[in-house]
């Protein structure tokens, strides 16, 4: 947490439940996230990571429990207020309709629209600053559909960044990236947490989360298994229980946690 961040929690989730058909996707999830922190939401496919973030952002509506951001119940926020409070970064850009990089990033300013001709000078400044911050200035007129996976991911992050949210929810940002771009994207997210923005990242790569995140929330089958600082909660028993994988866990020369998967474990032994 940076010195100018408020103390205490930005996000509080209490007894969050949601059911799709006959499947309970979240089973009484309760977590808290501090102001200005970067939190890793970790777990296998289908464990509820993306579902929880969609509940927090208001995409899912039929949940029970309580979600508050900066002390405000999210159910009381109008759509425009929610968009200024929470920004989401999906794993894929989806249909870009031939938009350029600058046009895509400008969409992040939509929550601040108050006129028909809405691209005000402050909107232009915000977009130019984001393009510079995320190394996209030279690509501003390029079509998003023609960019590399790493470049597209930076565009999505820049779009969320110009919303100036209190909370940024990032869903599997490195799933299609090579080693260099994985590190680059995580560095960008880490730098945003350093400015006071709170960042929650859903990811599979435990070693990556352990390196960059202040704390981790570990999930399995719709429940929270463990929370805390990476070095305190990530161990070989946890990886075995959550992922069904035997591993070796240690500290590198910089004192950072790394996870080395060794072999899968039969379901009956978990």
Unreliable stretches: none
Count of DSSP H/I helices: 9
CATH superfamily of the largest domain: P-loop containing nucleotide triphosphate hydrolases
Which shape, going by the Cα principal axes?
Answer: globular
Alpha carbon gap, first and last residue: 37 Å
The CATH topology of the largest domain: Rossmann fold
Q: For the largest beta sheet, what order do the strands appear in spatially?
A: 6-7-8-3-9-10
Q: Can you walk through the features of this model?
A:
The chain has helices at residues 49-57, 79-85, 101-106, 121-133, 149-161, 179-194, 206-212, 230-233, 236-243; strands at residues 9-20, 23-34, 38-42, 64-69, 72-73, 86-89, 167-171, 198-203, 215-220, 223-228, 245-251, 257-264. 31% of the residues lie in helices and 29% in strands. α5 runs parallel beside α6. The mean pLDDT is 91. The chain folds into two domains: 9-234, P-loop containing nucleotide triphosphate hydrolases (Rossmann fold, 3-Layer(aba) Sandwich); 235-270, no CATH class. The longest helix has 16 residues, at 179-194. The two termini are 37 Å apart. β4 (64-69) and β5 (72-73) form a beta hairpin. It has a six-stranded mixed sheet, with helices on both faces. Strands 2-1-4-5 form a four-stranded antiparallel sheet, with helices on one face. It has a two-stranded antiparallel sheet with strand order 11-12. The protein is α/β, with parallel strands linked by helices and 270 residues long.
């Amino acid at each position: 947490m940076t010195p100018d961040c408020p103390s205490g929690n930005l996000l509080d989730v209490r007894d969050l439940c949601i059911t799709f058909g006959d499947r309970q996707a979240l089973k009484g999830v309760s977590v808290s996230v501090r102001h200005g922190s970067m939190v890793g939401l970790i777990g296998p496919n289908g464990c509820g990571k993306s579902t929880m973030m969609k509940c927090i952002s208001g995409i899912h509506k039929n949940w029970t429990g309580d979600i508050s951001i900066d002390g405000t119940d999210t159910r009381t926020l109008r759509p425009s207020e929610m968009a200024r409070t929470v920004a989401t970064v999906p794993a894929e850009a989806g249909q870009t309709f031939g938009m350029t990089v600058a046009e895509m990033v400008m969409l992040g300013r939509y929550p601040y629209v108050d006129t028909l001709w809405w691209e005000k000078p402050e909107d232009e400044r915000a977009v130019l600053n984001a393009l510079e911050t995320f190394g996209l200035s030279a690509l501003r007129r390029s079509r998003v559909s023609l960019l590399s996976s790493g470049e597209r991911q930076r565009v999505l992050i820049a779009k969320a960044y110009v919303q100036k949210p209190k909370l940024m929810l990032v869903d599997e940002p490195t799933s299609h990236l090579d080693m260099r771009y994985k590190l680059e994207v995580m560095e960008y997210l880490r730098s945003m947490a350093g400015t006071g923005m709170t960042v929650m990242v859903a990811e599979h790569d435990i070693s990556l989360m352990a390196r960059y995140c202040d704390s981790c929330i570990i999930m399995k089958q719709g429940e929270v298994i463990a929370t805390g600082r990476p070095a305190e909660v990530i161990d070989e028993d946890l990886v075995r229980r959550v992922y069904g994988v035997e591993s070796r866990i240690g500290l590198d020369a910089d004192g950072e946690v790394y996870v080395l998967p060794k072999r899968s474990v039969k379901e009956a032994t978990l």
